[in-house]
Amino acid sequence: MDIRGKRVLVAGGAGFVGSHLVDRLVESSCDVAVLDDLSNGAGENLEQARKSGRMRLVLGSVEDAAIVRSLVVGEERTVVFHLAALNLLKSVADPQRDLLVNGLGTLNLLRAMQESSLTPIMVFSSTGSVYGEPGYQPQDEQHPLQPVSPYGISKLAAEKYVLLWHKLFGVRTVALRYYNVYGPRQNYNPTGGVVSIFIDRVLHGLPPVIEGTGNQERCFTYVEDVVRANLLAAQTEAAWGGVYNIGTTEITTIRSLTDLVLSRCHSTLQPISAPRRVGDVDVFRPDISRAAHCLGYRPTVPLETGLQRTIEWFVETGRAPAPAGPAVPRVD
After folding, report:
1. 163-193: per-residue pLDDT in tens?
2. What are the angstrom distances between the C-alpha of 122 and each of 78, 238, 252, 280, 289?
3. 234: buried, middle or exposed (CB in 10 Å: 19+, 13-18, 0-12)?
4. Backbone phi, psi, residue 10, to 5°
5. Hey, do 7-179+223-246 and 182-218+250-285+299-316 end up sharing a CATH topology, with the first three levels equal?
6. What distance in Å separates the CA atoms of residue 306 and residue 327, rounded to the nearest whole number?
7. HEC states along 32-51?
8. For 304-331, what is the mean pLDDT?
9. In the predicted structure, residue 70 carries a pLDDT above the cut 80
10. Number of other CB atoms surrounding residue 135 within 10 Å
11. I need a labelling partner for 48 at 20 to 30 A (CA). Which of 130, 255, 289, 321 fits?
12. Which of 151, 178, 179, 244 is catalytic?
């Protein structure tokens, strides 16, 4: 299926990943409705899409079944990208809200899609956190599912609904398990992503804070690669009804990430230590071969390139001063 020109709903479209996806959709001449309560997202993330005249922001939550139905059924949306969610830290602080957004919100979307006469497609944003501590590496999609955080549990419940609705009712769905997405627009407050938090602190002259030993292994996936995976999933009919890991083959420890950020920011700061966070997992090593085979997905942005682009975003948008030191050639 070609997504160009389709009527699309992006739940959570004012957020980090969602807004990048919206940009790509309006470039493809899609008519895009964004549903977002702006609790995690920001209207400024949609400035570029708003200029196109093909995007409309609807203030509301996926928890509101009436709004969801009006958008999916009433406006005859044929593709739904479901990216609305709380993050891991917010899920620990408020597990009830986390379950409502991920569980009830997902059910609201699925039931509206079931009611639609147009058989819409849903691409659901899941997470590698559904696996929990690895029983083997790399983790493929058949790995046991034993999440160790409220976020992982609620995402797994939602994912099960997404796949069940495909089996029981023929709703066309696909689930993507993301691994540590980073890039421009990522939240850099204390509940944000480690990459953006590190960059923000270092550019403001503050030492990065390593939680735990720093030997935790992560697969940092640049946001453009994740957006491309979403578009591939929506357009690959053979993939519907399945679940796919979306990450990279480049594995980095938190301590190595710290060194890279300090180096790219030309900083001599020394990191400081803090207790390990609740729900943290030592190793994230995904097997992405299924996504490569079924979706044609292959990551294209190495970590150093993605870090530089993210640092440039901080500087160009005025969120942080330019790093002191020799100029770094821009990565286009």
Report:
1. 999 999 999 999 999 999 999 999 998 878 9
2. 9, 14, 31, 29, 22
3. buried
4. -120, 105
5. no
6. 17
7. EEEEECCCCCCHHHHHHHHH
8. 83
9. yes
10. 10
11. 321
12. 151
pTM for this predicted structure: 0.94
Concatenating the DSSP letter of every residue in 99-158 gives HIIIIIHHHHHHHHHHH-TT--EEEEEEEGGGS-S-SSSSB-TTS-----SHHHHHHHHH
- CB crowding 172-185: b at 16 or more within 10 Å, else e: bbbbbbbbbbbbbb
Burial 213-233 (b: 16+ CB within 10 A, else e): ebebbbbbbbbbbbbbbbbbb
Question: In this structure, are residues 117 and 130 in contact, taking their beta carbons and an 8 Å threshold?
Answer: no
Give the span between the Cα atoms of 20 and 256, in whole angstroms. Answer: 27
Dump pLDDT digits (tens) for 122-135: 999 999 999 998 89
Distance CA 281, CA 220 (A): 14
Domain spanning 182-218+250-285+299-316, CATH class: alpha beta
Q: What are the φ/ψ torsions at residue 130 (nearest 5 degrees)?
A: -70, -20
CB atoms within 10 A of CB 160: 15
| Average predicted confidence (pLDDT) for the chain | 93
pLDDT in tens, 15-31: 999 999 999 999 999 99
Collapse the DSSP code of 221 into the 3-class scheme (helix H, G, I; strand E, B; otherwise coil) and give the result. strand
Domain 7-179+223-246 CATH superfamily: NAD(P)-binding Rossmann-like Domain (3.40.50.720)
pLDDT at 329 over 50: no
Residue 36 CA to residue 42 CA, distance in Å, equals 9
136 is catalytic: no
